[in-house]
Amino acid sequence: MKIKPLGDRVLVKVEEVEEKTAGGIFIPQTAQEKTQIATVAAIGDDKDVITVKVGDKIMYDKYAGTSVKVDGSDHLLLRMADILAVVE
Amino acid sequence: MKIKPLGDRVLVKVEEVEEKTAGGIFIPQTAQEKTQIATVAAIGDDKDVITVKVGDKIMYDKYAGTSVKVDGSDHLLLRMADILAVVE
Amino acid sequence: MKIKPLGDRVLVKVEEVEEKTAGGIFIPQTAQEKTQIATVAAIGDDKDVITVKVGDKIMYDKYAGTSVKVDGSDHLLLRMADILAVVE
Amino acid sequence: MKIKPLGDRVLVKVEEVEEKTAGGIFIPQTAQEKTQIATVAAIGDDKDVITVKVGDKIMYDKYAGTSVKVDGSDHLLLRMADILAVVE
Amino acid sequence: MKIKPLGDRVLVKVEEVEEKTAGGIFIPQTAQEKTQIATVAAIGDDKDVITVKVGDKIMYDKYAGTSVKVDGSDHLLLRMADILAVVE
Amino acid sequence: MKIKPLGDRVLVKVEEVEEKTAGGIFIPQTAQEKTQIATVAAIGDDKDVITVKVGDKIMYDKYAGTSVKVDGSDHLLLRMADILAVVE
Amino acid sequence: MKIKPLGDRVLVKVEEVEEKTAGGIFIPQTAQEKTQIATVAAIGDDKDVITVKVGDKIMYDKYAGTSVKVDGSDHLLLRMADILAVVE
Predict the structure, then answer these.
(1) Domains in chain C, start-ordered, CATH in brackets?
(2) Which residues of F touch E81 (CB under 8 A)?
(3) Contact between G68 and G76 (Cβ < 8 Å)
(4) What beta strand segments (E) does E1-88 contain?
């Protein structure tokens, strides 16, 4: 299944986070913290508004977007305005 | 009964999903997941805004639109802005 | 009593639905389903906005409009934007 | 007391309805039904917007306006946009 | 203390109503009815918007404005848009 | 600590009111009445919008602004639109 | 991890406040008071709107922004409009 976002929308793949300390101990995170970072999977056709590109890691507004399953993994359809920052 | 959507509205037919694994086991889905994909059945007359065409499979915003029955099957009258992506 | 809607408003007569199967068995409908189709009885003077005409069967947004009695039958005063589609 | 509405406002006198059948039996109406028809008593100075005139019978949006007593009878100060239709 | 309203604001003095019948019997009024008439005490500097003048008796929207005490009497700081009508 | 408000914002120092009668008896006031007068301490850089100056006594909208402590005394960061009137 | 805010957004580092009197006694503050001051860590690309620069100490609107962890310390992604004042 291929998803082509419309207009100012951006499809992102939510990161599955497995945080470990240097010593390898797992540090649990709240769901909220986990879901704040995602990778851009596809972008809409409104190129004037969209300033991220496929592959960018982004931070997004909590509660934003519509969650969809693509090939079994959690994705979100966000509006560009819900993307807060690019993470490098 | 033929329905002609007005303005930026789009009539879509909600997909009836019967998910099976390769082995044929039925996997139940929540209503929410089911209703996120639909097929465009008719489009309004506001061609500047509408960028989908009859037959397109689309993803739409949860809670959007007005549900109507057409010839016994579930349809939705959506606004173009409620359509998030085209699925291929 | 004659009602002349103002501006972008449209007066519609709510259909009284008596659904029967081919065999004549009455199938009850919820009020919600019943009230979604109506016939245009009069239109306002804002001709740029109004794209329906007297006699058209239309579908309208649930919860929209103000209900009024005209000569004993249920009518609604809708705004043009509450009319979703024309039914043929 | 004379009331001069400002801008796009219209002062209307709420009709006191005494509904009787041909045989003279009183049919009670709910307050809601009663208060939907009124007569224009005075209009504001925004003549571009106001398309009703003193003496017109009008239907108005339920819950709209501010109720005032003028010489002992119930009146409403409505905005033009709250007036749905003229009744003849 | 002298109050100079800013912009489209108007300072009004709320009327203290003592309603009596011809025979002098006091008729209590609800607070709501009482507070609907006031006298303009000062006007803001936005003369394009303000169409009332000091001394005018006005009717105002229930719940509008910010109540202030000026020299011991109840006043309100209203926006021009909250003033519904001039009373003569 | 020096605070420079941004844009259309105004920093005001909330007055501490100690109301006494001529005879010196303290008259308690509600918090609401007390907090309605303040003195302008600093203004933002949007000079087109800001029409008050440092030192002005102003009345402001109840519930408006963000309270901050400056050198131990209560201040508020208001928008110009929350300032209702200048008091002289 | 480097965060590049988008558009009119500003990344700020929330100050950890340890208030002591001259005599060194710790004075507890409510969380609300603490979180009102922060230091600008990165700014977005909308230079017409953003009037703060990296290193500025700013006051921000309570409840504004999205909290993020950067290298273990509390940060906020604010919109420029949520920044009330610069502190010097």
Answers:
(1) 9-15+33-87 (2.30.33.40)
(2) none
(3) yes
(4) 3-5, 9-14, 37-43, 57-60, 66-70, 73-79, 83-87
| Whole-angstrom distance, CA of residue D57 vs CA of residue D59 | 7
Give the C-alpha separation, G75 to G70, whole Å.
Answer: 7
CA dihedral G19, G24, G28, G34 (to 10 degrees): 0
Grouped pLDDT means (10 residues each) for chain E, 88 residues: 93 74 54 68 94 96 85 91 94
Q: State the Cα–Cα distance between residues F5 and F47, nearest whole angstrom.
A: 12
User: Residue F44 is encoded by which pair of tokens?
Assistant: 């933002």
G15 vs G35: CA distance, rounded Å: 7
pLDDT for the residue numbered G35: 47
Q: Cα dist. E55→A55, E4, E39, E68, F11 in Å?
A: 68, 15, 6, 18, 34
Contact between B59 and A77 under an 8 Å Cβ cutoff? The reply is yes
The mean pLDDT of D47-75, rounded to a whole number, is 90
Provide the chain C residues 44-63 that lie in CB contact (below 8 A) with chain D. Answer: 45
Kindly state the tokens that stand for A50.
């969209």
The pLDDT value recorded for residue D71 is: 82
**Are B28 and B44 contacting, i.e. CB atoms less than 8 angstroms apart?**
no
F53 CA to chain E: closest CA distance, Å? 13
What is the value of pTM for the model shown?
A: 0.77
d(CA D6, CA D68): 15
d(CA A40, CA A14): 9
Beta-bridge partners for F8: none
Tokens of A33: 């913290």
| CB contact at 8 A, F11 and G85 | yes
Contact B59 A69 (CB under 8 A): no
CB F78 within 8 A of CB E83: no
Question: Would you say residue B65 has pLDDT above 80?
Answer: yes
Question: In angstroms, how far is CA D37 from the centroid of its own chain?
Answer: 6
CA distance C16 to D57: 28
For residue C7, which phi and psi values (nearest 5 degrees)?
Answer: 60, -125
Q: How far C68 CA lies from chain B's nearest CA (Å)? A: 23
Spatial contact of F44 and F7, defined as CB atoms under 8 Å apart = yes
Q: How far apart are CA B44 and CA C83, in angstroms?
A: 12
Phi, psi of B13 (to 5 degrees): -100, 120
Residue E31: phi and psi, rounded to 5, are -55, -35
Rounded Cα–Cα distance for residues G46 and F74 (Å): 34
Report chain A's mean pLDDT, rounded to a whole number: 83
Q: Which of C59, C62, C63, C80 is most worth mutating to test chain B (most B CB atoms within 10 A of its CB)? A: C59
For chain F, the maximum distance between any two Cα atoms, rounded to a whole number of angstroms, is 46
* Residues G18-57 pLDDT 10s: 555 556 555 544 444 444 899 999 999 999 999 999 999 9
Instruction: Compute how many other C-beta atoms are within 10 angstroms of the C-beta atom of residue E51.
Output: 14
Cα angle, residue E73 at apex, residues F23 and E5 outer, rounded to 5°? 115
**Residue F64: closest C-alpha in chain E:** E66
